[in-house]
Design goal:
Elements lengths: L6 E9 L2 E4 L6 H7 L6 H4 L3 E4 L4 H16 L8 E5 L7 H15 L5 E5 L6 H14 L5 E8 L17 E8 L7 E11 L12 H15 L8 E3 L5 H10 L10 H5 L7 H11 L8 E8 L2 E9 L15
Parallel strand pairs: 4-5, 4-6, 9-10
Antiparallel strand pairs: 1-7, 1-8, 2-3, 6-7, 8-11, 10-11
Helix pairs in contact: 3-4
Length: about 325
C-alpha cells in the first residue's frame, strides 16, 4: 500500500530551570550502595541533573510553542496533538483540565488530541510513530508531538539505570517539512517481549537487533550506514554495552548528554538530536536513528536530515 511521506521538523526542548550537581541528590550514596554500584561518577556518567518547580503543563507548553515557532507553523493550523508522559497527574476528573491547559497555552484551537503513557520512556518515539502513521494515512497534515515529565519524589531521582532530570521536548510531524531543521521519517519499528515488561528485567539487546533489522531492511541499509544513534541517556556503561550489542560502533553513539543533562525520561532522543546538531555533528543527507529501550520494549525511528532552507516568519519566539 502506498502511503504519503512524513517529515519531522523543528525539534526543541526545555529543561528544568535549576541545574544541580549529582552530589546534591540526598540519597545518592545510599541508593548506589543499594544497587551495588561503586560511587564513581566518571564511570557512570554522573554529572548534573535539572529540577523544575513548574507543572507538566507548563513544560509542555514551553516546548510545544518553541517547536511551532522554530517551524514557522501557526498554532491554529495544527490539526493533531500527541502528548506523552510517564505519569499524567490525577485521573479522569482532572485530565480534561490538563489537556485544556496544554492546548490553550500553545494556542491550539481544534487539534485532535491523543495521550500516551504506558510505554514508559519509549513514549515519545511511540508518539512519533503514531504521528507518522496519521500523516501517511492522510488523517492529519500537521501533528505536534511532545513529551513532558518531571520527578515528584526526590527519593527516586536516582535509579539503577539513570539519574533523572525534569523537562520536555517537542517537534512537528507533517506532510511537508517546516523550518530550517527538518528530517524525512524514513522508517520505524518496535519490538516487545510481554514476559519481560516488569521493571526488574534488563534492557534487551535482542529486541534492539530486531528493531534494527526491521528499520534498516526497510531503508535498504546496514547498521554501519547510520550516521548517529540518538539513544536514552542511561548510565554510560549500560548504553555503550547495549548499543554495541545491537550492532552499532562506539563512534555512532552520542554520550555527552548523559553527564550534561541526565535522563529526561522519553525526551532524550530529541534532546540528543538537537544537541548533536548544535555541536555541528549532523550532516545533510545523513541518517540518524532515534532509539529507546526499556525492559521488554525497543522502539526506533530512522530519520534522514534534509538540507536547510529559509523558514517562514514565526508567530512567537522562545529561548530554550
Amino acid at each position: 500500500m502506498n502511503t504519503a511521506p512524513a517529515y519531522l521538523s523543528a525539534p526543541r526542548y526545555v529543561l528544568g530551570e535549576t541545574e544541580a550537581d549529582h552530589t546534591t541528590i540526598a540519597n545518592l550514596t545510599a541508593r548506589a550502595r543499594e544497587f551495588g554500584m561503586p560511587p564513581k561518577a566518571a564511570l557512570w556518567g554522573w554529572g548534573t541533573v535539572r529540577r523544575t518547580a513548574k507543572s507538566l503543563e507548563s513544560l509542555a507548553v514551553e516546548s510545544g510553542a518553541a517547536a511551532l515557532a522554530a517551524a514557522g507553523v501557526e498554532p491554529a493550523s495544527v490539526d493533531g496533538l500527541i502528548v506523552c508522559s510517564t505519569r499524567f497527574p490525577g485521573g479522569p476528573r482532572t485530565h480534561g483540565r490538563f489537556v485544556e491547559a496544554v492546548m490553550s497555552g500553545i494556542g491550539l484551537a481544534g487539534a485532535a488530541f491523543t495521550g500516551i503513557t504506558l510505554n514508559r520512556c519509549t513514549n515519545l518515539l511511540v508518539g512519533l510513530r503514531m504521528a507518522q502513521a496519521f500523516v501517511a494515512a492522510g488523517h492529519h497534515r500537521k501533528v505536534l508531538v511532545l513529551s513532558t515529565d518531571r520527578i515528584t519524589d526526590e527519593s527516586v531521582r536516582m535509579e539503577n539505570f539513570a539519574l533523572f532530570s525534569d523537562g520536555a521536548a517537542a517537534c512537528v510531524v507533517g506532510a511537508e517539512p517546516h523550518g530550517t531543521d527538518a528530517y524525512e521519517m524514513v522508517a520505524g519499528a518496535s519490538a516487545q517481549d510481554p514476559t519481560a515488561l516488569d521493571w526488574s528485567n534488563e534492557i534487551s539487546s535482542d529486541l534492539a537487533r530486531t528493531v534494527n533489522e526491521r528499520v534498516l531492511t526497510a531503508a535498504g541499509m546496514k547498521a554501519g550506514d547510520v550516521d548517529g544513534v540518538l539513544h536514552l541517556n542511561l548510565y554510560k556503561p549500560l548504553v555503550v554495552m547495549k548499543e554495541r550489542q545491537a550492532g552499532f560502533a562506539a563512534e555512532q553513539l552520542f554520550l555527552d548528554n548523559i553527564t550534561r543533562v541526565g535522563h529526561c525520561f522519553a525526551a532524550d532522543p530529541l534532546i540528543n538530536l538537537v544537541d548533536r546538531g548544535a555541536a555541528g555533528a549532523l550532516r545533510d543527507g545523513g541518517h540518524y536513528l532515534l532509539a529507546a529501550s526499556v525492559p521488554g520494549v525497543r522502539v526506533g525511528v530512522l530519520l534522514r536530515k534534509l538540507s536547510a532552507s529559509p523558514a517562514p516568519a514565526a508567530t512567537t519566539s522562545r529561548e530554550l
